[in-house]
Automatic annotation (TrEMBL):
NCBIfam families attached to this UniProt entry: Cof-subfamily (TIGR00099), HAD-SF-IIB (TIGR01484)
PANTHER family, alphabetized: HAD SUPERFAMILY HYDROLASE-LIKE, TYPE 3, PHOSPHOSERINE PHOSPHATASE
InterPro entries: Cof (IPR000150), HAD-like_sf (IPR036412), HAD-SF_hydro_IIB (IPR006379), HAD_sf (IPR023214)
Protein name: Cof-type HAD-IIB family hydrolase
Keywords annotated in UniProt: Hydrolase
Pfam families: Hydrolase_3
Gene Ontology MF terms in the entry: hydrolase activity
Residues annotated as transmembrane: none
């Protein structure tokens, strides 16, 4: 089977736990790309922190970012917005009030920028790890522009309680709340997910779902894995994510993406 479009989650899938690419994985991805497949990074990251990964792979092209809320074309001329699922800051005001009261760190994102109201050393280290330079403002509610993602960052047990509380109270209203990692909760448009973004991109390139491969590791990857003709989970995924996949490859620390591409593409 020739897969014309290969969607790769980044953190926990393409990168190892040190947030690095291995040379073998880089070479394998380039080989698959040179054979004619579109390589699309499909990530919760913003465009600015995804482009360096694309450049390290020696590629340029389309990226699905912010967990499917934003699709961007990146090349030597810069970054161009192709599509976004946005919503109003008014839609998250009850949640903003709640996290401010509880002292939980948060940020809000437009397609190309991230805004925060405070920055401690713990948060600074996290943003540095993900190559993010957020803009510090007094009150994000006064930005006066649509946003594509509202993210909480805290310890797993804190977010477990938030997730339960907000679900019971439906505090997110018509928006969508997902756990994008143990330390993160994302609130986005109900239409925004990696699967919908990947489906739209494949259609624009006249590529059928059975010609798409997607590799991921977490719950925010389920929709793209379900859309793809072949959805693969890396071995470090939660058990129910692995059960939902068509196949399981080695972990992100064991070059799972490399092994999957060799097996199914080369």
């Amino acid at each position: 089977m020739t897969y014309k479009l290969i969607a790769l989650d980044v953190d926990g899938t393409l990168l190892n736990d040190e947030h690095r690419l291995t040379e073998q994985t880089i070479q394998t991805i380039r080989e698959v790309h040179e054979a004619g497949s579109h390589i699309v990074l499909c990530t919760g990251r913003a465009p600015a922190s995804t482009v360096p990964i694309l450049q390290e792979l020696g590629l340029e092209g389309t990226m699905i970012t912010h967990n499917g809320a934003v699709t961007v074309q990146a090349d030597e001329r810069g970054q161009a917005l192709l599509h976004e699922f946005s919503f109003s800051l008014d839609d998250i005001q009850p949640m903003l009030n709640d996290v401010r009261e509880k002292g939980i760190h948060f940020d809000v994102c437009t397609p190309f920028n991230m805004y925060i109201e405070r920055l401690g050393e713990y948060e600074k280290a996290m943003y540095k790890k993900f190559l993010i330079n957020p803009k510090l403002v007094t009150d994000v509610s006064e930005l006066g522009m649509p946003i594509v993602k509202f993210t909480l960052f805290s310890q797993p047990e804190v977010l477990d309680l938030v997730e339960k509380d907000w679900s019971e109270r439906k505090l997110y209203g018509d928006l969508r709340m997902i756990r994008s990692g143990e330390l993160f909760i994302d609130v986005m448009s109900a239409e925004a997910n990696k699967g919908n973004a990947l489906k739209a991109l494949a259609a624009s390139w006249e590529i059928d779902a059975h010609e798409v491969m997607a590799i991921g590791n977490y719950y925010n990857d389920l929709e793209m894995m379900a859309f793809a003709g072949l959805g693969i989970a890396v071995d470090n995924s939660p058990e129910d994510v692995k059960q939902a996949a068509d196949a399981v490859t080695a972990s992100n620390n064991e070059e799972g993406v490399h092994h999957a591409l060799v097996r199914y593409c080369l």
